[in-house]
Design a protein that fits this description.
Layout: H1 2-14, E1 26-28, E2 33-35, H2 40-50, H3 68-73, H4 75-86, H5 138-142, E3 144-145, E4 154-163, E5 179-188, E6 190-199, H6 200-209, H7 213-235, E7 253-255, H8 266-286, E8 295-298, H9 300-308, H10 318-325, E9 333-334, E10 347-352, E11 362-371, E12 375-377, E13 380-393, E14 401-405
Parallel strand pairs: 3-11, 7-14, 8-9
Antiparallel strand pairs: 1-2, 4-5, 6-13, 8-10, 10-14, 11-13, 12-13
Length: about 400
């Protein structure tokens, strides 16, 4: 048996490198592994660390210079191998293989452990869902202006008016004269910034995992700046002298005549409808038809309340009747930002005119979202996104108004 196995090894080795020393192997019953002369020192050291017997390896001086070519051609060499193994109590095990044999890859594997790992049968969906984000309503409702150029540190709007009256002329009397007046209002400018940081090696790992880290972080930077711009459009910033619609100076503010309830009688329903019509008519009646709103917005729950509250003796909703009474208002918009945002947790009801350039509210966006070049420091990368705004501008506030609604439904 020993000669046949050594002969097979010699034939295999001769096909690659006939001059290389023949590496003799045997099966070690103590370790349960195939052992090789080239691994003698490491195998012995590991066995001592584990507290077990070292594997039995062939390392005989008599066979040190034996090569595959010599073994195949020299009968004396084959006889020497037979003599060496004939004197051993245990022949070479039939499982012995060369170190570069493909069959050797089974050593050290517990063959009873199975073929499947813990997550081999788990399916991971290719599509990754994103966390939903709330719609930002300010810019969609009021529109955007980019009249102010980049680089300005403040901006100002001016309005002119005149005073005086004419009279019937009588000889010898003075002719009355008119006068002009001008008012101006100045606004600040604010720069909105947010940044991202990426570690070079983490980026490699995220790229390998297909997480698109840079794309997701850049989108998060854009969202952060958009959220701040939306908040400024509603509430402004006193520190930077920026106005929003809800804190705009000189804007008329009032409280709704009656709390909003689920009406159980015609009188209650009519009182609520009359209250909405009154606040929509006030600007037109107070300013001699020179100011008349055509847009309105309120919180989502008040918009739903108006659409779902029906006349006690009919099928028409409060919303339908309100729009029928208001010729210039064609719809009631909703914005979640207007819910519980007033004094004492009240909701807002807003009115404005977007047909007159002087009366139309607009958000001054001087610089839209942009990014600076990527900064690199060692293996860390940093990028900053920014935008510039001048806040809300309403040149003529007469058509605009804010009403606070107390909710009791």
């Amino acid at each position: 048996m020993a000669v046949k196995i050594i002969d097979a090894l010699a034939t295999d080795r001769a096909s690659t490198d006939p001059k290389a020393p023949l590496e003799l192997v045997e099966w070690s019953e103590e370790s349960g592994r195939i052992a090789f002369p080239s691994m003698l020192a490491r195998a012995t050291r590991r066995a001592r660390q584990d507290g077990r017997a070292a594997p039995t390896l062939i390392a005989l001086d008599a066979l040190r210079d034996l090569t595959a070519e010599v073994y195949r051609t020299d009968a004396a060499a084959r006889e020497l191998v037979d003599q060496v193994y004939a004197g051993r109590s245990q022949p070479i095990h039939p499982k012995a293989r060369r170190v570069d044999s493909a069959q050797l890859r089974q050593d050290g594997i517990e063959l009873t452990s199975g073929l499947l790992f813990a997550r081999d049968l788990e399916h991971i969906h290719a599509r990754v869902s994103e966390e939903p984000v709330a719609t930002l309503n300010a810019l969609a409702l009021f529109g955007v202006s980019s009249e102010v150029p980049v680089g300005a540190t403040s901006h100002t709007v001016r309005r002119f008016g005149d005073a005086g009256q004419a009279r019937m002329y009588r000889a010898g009397e003075e002719v009355p004269t008119v006068s002009l007046a001008a008012v101006e209002e100045s606004f600040g400018i604010g720069h909105l910034v947010a940044g991202l940081e990426i570690d070079f090696f983490e980026a490699l790992a995220h790229g390998f995992a297909g997480l698109r880290e840079y794309e997701r972080k850049l989108r998060a930077v854009r969202r952060a700046i958009d959220r701040l711009l939306n908040r400024i459009a509603w509430w402004g910033s006193r520190e930077f002298k920026l106005y929003g619609f809800l804190n705009y100076p000189h804007l008329p503010k009032r409280v709704f005549a009656t709390p909003l309830i689920v009406p159980t009688s015609i009188a209650q329903f009519d009182a609520i409808l009359a209250g909405f019509n009154e606040i929509a008519n006030r600007a037109r009646q107070a300013h001699k038809d020179t100011a008349d709103p055509n847009r309105c917005a309120t919180s989502t729950r008040v918009r739903d309340y108006m659409a779902q509250t029906r006349h006690p003796q009919g099928r028409e909703s409060l919303l339908e009747l309100f729009l029928r009474d208001q010729a210039r208002i064609s719809r009631v918009d909703s914005a979640w930002e207007l819910q519980e945002s007033g004094p004492g947790g009240t909701d807002h009801f807003l009115l404005w005119d977007d047909t007159d350039p002087d009366a139309k509210p607009s958000v001054e966006v001087i610089q839209g979202f942009a990014t600076l070049p990527m900064e690199t420091s060692g293996f860390a990368q940093r990028q900053v996104g920014y935008a510039t705004t001048g806040g809300m501008v309403i040149r003529d506030v007469r058509a605009a108004s804010i009403t606070f609604l107390e909710i009791n439904f």
